[in-house]
Structure formats: structure tokens, C-alpha cells
Amino acid sequence: MTAPTEAPRVPNPVALDFSTSRRGPRGKPPRHYVDLTPEQRLVAVTDLGEPAYRAKQLATHYFTHLTADPAAMTDLPKASRDVLVAGLFPPLLTAARTLQADAGTTVKTLWHLFDGAKVESVLMRYKHRSTLCVSSQAGCGLACSFCATGRLGLIRNLSTAEIVEQVRSAGRSLADGELPGGPTRLSNVVFMGMGEPLANYKSVLETVRRLIAPNPDGFGMSARNITVSTVGLVPAIEKLTNEGIPVTLAVSLHAPDDELRDELVPVNTRWSVDQTIDAAYHYFEVTGRRVSIEYALIRNINDQGWRADLLGEKLNARGKGWVHCNPIPLNPVPGSKWTASDPEVEDEFVARLRAHGIPTTIRDTRGSDIDGACGQLAAEEEL
């Protein structure tokens, strides 16, 4: 069987807005300490009648001790604590449901936001690292055919603080030893939860800045331990390339040919497979960071051996050593026609990529018994 010829491209608009909700207006999250820059925090604290140095004390409690509980801020006068927390730390997320898998080392949380919107995060503890998968939007407007979140449509973007609060909560849980293995630190954050991260560019980049800022103004994480995923918003990839922050870029490709990718990932009608791979390769050229290609293997849809060959050829055409491929056995969504590839087909797909010299690792599919696909718990409540 031969690969289909490339479909003609739709002219690319200069700018696209994927951030507008189709569900009607939602409230703006209240201002939170995390939404502010260090300079703005000084102003906010003094506006509340407190000395400016309180801003650093608050930062230490939040980013180092991972708490916004006034009772834990014993180095502040009680009256000051109450004023500052009431004014700068409004509750943004409420845990509505928590599910565990993998002997308690995988924890999925459904969060209700202040306006009733719903998002999910997944905390995964491994032997030598702990990883949190965060959501950046409630729902998603990009309508990928097989995605649970895409069935919701876009509800709204998350604020910086709403994303960071997912991180702080996970860090606190690990520090308190709530997952098996004893107390530990959160080492990795991946923007692979609900939503298209680069469609909420400002909040995601501000979140990354909070993650990598040294204590006490941030969590002090390494940019190399942060992964930002995208289905291929090429202008946003180019913008990220120029930020000077060496996060790992993960591109959710899912098909190497435009005919199929147009169906699976509709944004491909704006930016083709080749344009997306070119943008990813340029990211590698500028940052030196190897790019991850994410590829959900879907039975009898995109798992043919010739598609593995075509993907390997396209990646190698840009250069060697710049990319790593992560085939992912699809986590089926109830009621969907899409399902995971047969194991032998998966093995053949991987073998063909490796035959092209592409480093390839099957992604660990944790949490399959707890509605592991992002958006499934939220979809149960929304749909």
C-alpha cells in the first residue's frame, strides 16, 4: 500500500484565536498571589496595609512550604495572616473526586473551579521521579476526533494561578507522603492534561516562569523537567522557540500524512504535517532540546506499517538526533469507535520507526483503570 498524496492546504491565517469559549461567558478567576510578578506582589501587600517584606514571606510559604494556610504562617502576626490570605489567596480549586491506580502511585483528581468549570490533573510517582500532568484549559476547542476533552468543546482558559495551584497541591501531597514510598519532591510537570496549552499561551508561559523561578519566587524546578505539548499551533511553537526557556516540546502528531491528520486533528487543515514538523525541528535548532513526537496508536486508523515508515522518513529528512518518538496505546473513551492497536501491530510500528534510526519508546499508560484519558471524569459530569 502506498501513502496518499498530500491534500492541498488551506491558506494559513496570520493569527488564530482558539481561546474563545463556545459555552458562553464565564467569570474571570479572582486575583491570586501567583498571578502577580514579584514586583506586583510588593504593591499588593502594601495596598493591604502590610509592610513590603511580607511579600517574600508569603512567597516562601507558598513556593517553598507549599501552603496557603494562614495557620501555618506562624512567622506572621495572626491579624496580618488573615488579611493577606483573604486578600491574595482566594480558593480557586476544590477537589471533587480522587481516584487511585497502580497501587496508589497514580492519583487522578477532578477539580471544580470557582465558577463550576471542571479540570483534571494526574500525579504519577515512579522509582526515581514524580510527574504531574496538568490541565491548562477547561475543555478544548480543537476537536481532535479521538479525544475525551475535545468532546467537551472549549469552556474557558485557566488562569496562571489555577494551573499553578494544581502543581502546588501535588507538591504538598508528595511532601506529606500521601503516595506510597514516603515523602518526596515533585520533579516533573507535563502540560498534557485537558486543553491545548499553546492556545492558552500567556497563562502557560507564566506558569512555566513560576515553576522555574528560584525560591522563594517560584518552585525552583529545572526547565528541562517541564514538557509543553501541542497539536501543532505553528505560530505559537515559533513564539515558544524564541522565549529562551529550554522546556521540552512535545508535538501530538498522530498521523504522518495530511489526508488522515486532517480528520484526526482538524487544526492540520491550517498547518500541515510538514509545517508542524518544520516548526518542531526549528525549536530543536534554536534550543538544542530534543523534541518528542506523540503518536496515539489507533486500531486500523493510523497504525499501518507504511505510516511508521513515512513518519520515520519525514523526521529523518530534517536531520538526525533531534527527535524522540512516543507511540501511545490509545486510552479508549466510553462510547467512542476509537480503540487501541493490537499489541503485535504496535510492536511492528515501533520496530519500523527504530529501523529508521528514530529513538522510540512506548509511553507508559498509567491509570487506564481510572478513566485515564484526560477529560473523561469531566466529561462524565458535563455531557
From TrEMBL:
According to its UniProt record, which residues of this chain constitute the active site? E120 (proton acceptor), C374 (s-methylcysteine intermediate)
Keyword 4Fe-4S in annotation: yes
What cofactors does the UniProt entry give for this protein? Answer: [4Fe-4S] cluster
Q: How is the cofactor bound?
A: Binds 1 [4Fe-4S] cluster. The cluster is coordinated with 3 cysteines and an exchangeable S-adenosyl-L-methionine.
Query: SMART domains in the record, alphabetically?
Result: Elp3
What SUPFAM superfamilies does the record tag this protein with? Radical SAM enzymes
InterPro entries associated with the record: Aldolase_TIM, Elp3/MiaA/NifB-like_rSAM, Methyltransferase_A, RNA_MTrfase_RlmN, rRNA_lsu_MTrfase_RlmN/Cfr, rSAM, rSAM_sf
Keywords, sorted A to Z:
4Fe-4S, Cytoplasm, Disulfide bond, Iron, Iron-sulfur, Metal-binding, Methyltransferase, rRNA processing, S-adenosyl-L-methionine, Transferase, tRNA processing
What GO terms in the biological process aspect are recorded for it?
rRNA base methylation; tRNA methylation
Asked if the record carries the keyword DNA repair, the reply is no
* Chain positions covered by the region annotation Disordered: 1-32
In short, the EC number is 2.1.1.192
For the ligand ([4Fe-4S] cluster), the binding residues are C140, C144, C147
Which amino acid positions bind S-adenosyl-L-methionine, per UniProt? Answer: G195, E196, S229, S252, L253, H254, N331
GO cellular component term, pick one = cytoplasm
Which GO molecular function, any one, fits this protein according to its record?
A: 4 iron, 4 sulfur cluster binding
| Intracellular or extracellular location(s) | Cytoplasm
Q: CDD domains given for it?
A: Radical_SAM
- What's the further remark here? Reaction proceeds by a ping-pong mechanism involving intermediate methylation of a conserved cysteine residue.
Q: What does this protein do?
A: Specifically methylates position 2 of adenine 2503 in 23S rRNA and position 2 of adenine 37 in tRNAs.
Homology family: Belongs to the radical SAM superfamily. RlmN family.
The protein's name is: Probable dual-specificity RNA methyltransferase RlmN
| Species annotation | Pengzhenrongella sicca
